[in-house]
Known about the structure:
Oligomer: single chain
Signal peptide: 1-16
Radius of gyration: 18 Å
Mean pLDDT: 91
Organism: Sphingomonas mollis
Order of helices and strands: HEEEEEEHEEEEEEEEEEEEHEEEEEE
Number of helices: 3
Number of strands: 24
Strand content: 35-45%
Domain Phosphodiester glycosidase: 87-285
Helix content: 10-25%
GO molecular function: hydrolase activity, acting on glycosyl bonds
Low-confidence stretches: 1-17
Protein name: Phosphodiester glycosidase family protein
Amino acid sequence: MWLAALALALAAAGQAASTTVPDxxxxxxxxxxxxxxxxxxxxxxxxxxxxxxxxRPRLRMGVTPPDRSRGMEYVAHxxxxxxxxxxxxxxxxxxxxxxxxxxxPKGSDYYPHTGEPxxxxxxxxxxxxxxxxxxxxxxxxxxxxxCLGRRSEIRAGQRCPAGxxxxxxxxxxxxxxxxxxxxxxxxxAEGGKGPRTAFGLSANGRRAWIVVVDGRQxxxxxxxxxxxxxxxxxELGGSDAMxxxxxxxxxxxIADGKSATVLNRxxxxxxxxxxxxxxxxxxxxxxxxLAEGR
Length: 294
């Protein structure tokens, strides 16, 4: 029932150029809203925001465990499939990965397809198992790490404290204690608008935000740059924030009974709605709310 209501609200939002759908509680400690904005250049931007109440005792975050069955660190899969396989309530794409080829427009010559082997760039830990070691020079975008253990924190670099059960190294690093983190000079030219996935934390560690911005879709959403993400996390109340893999990888899914629903509009090989197989995900586990009237 709630999913049908959410769909109606999103459809209504599409009729306006700048609209915010009120927060919708998805699970215990998990809310979601969609914002439609017009940026300074007059281009549309659709933002999906999941807010996590980290004070809820049964809410926890994790990372997709490694799968070396095909000889590399992971076996590629869609975010939707990962959510179902790991019995999570929310899933979003996480690490950069290799080998990778974006494919020709509307083609099927991309890599990886579902079931093909990949490894992630930078450190990753999933379900207490090291998936990928620290790799400083592999990808300059990888400049921060989300460490999940007794507390959640974003650190510069790729090293987490002892006791970390799950971790994702990615980037760029966006905010550190409320201050914008300067981009590495070699990445400045790559900081334009596009689909984005990012994660942020409040200074007191009581709130976290998963942000996905749709992009590369003229008339719907052209995407965000790093400066726009910094502004957004400051608006939300974030103190620390980092990007995950973006572009055609940006995908946000939630549990819908025994299946999954994608909340954003990913774009892979230029096809809106087409999901890209990725390596791993940030997973959120939260109690399912009782149905209305029960």
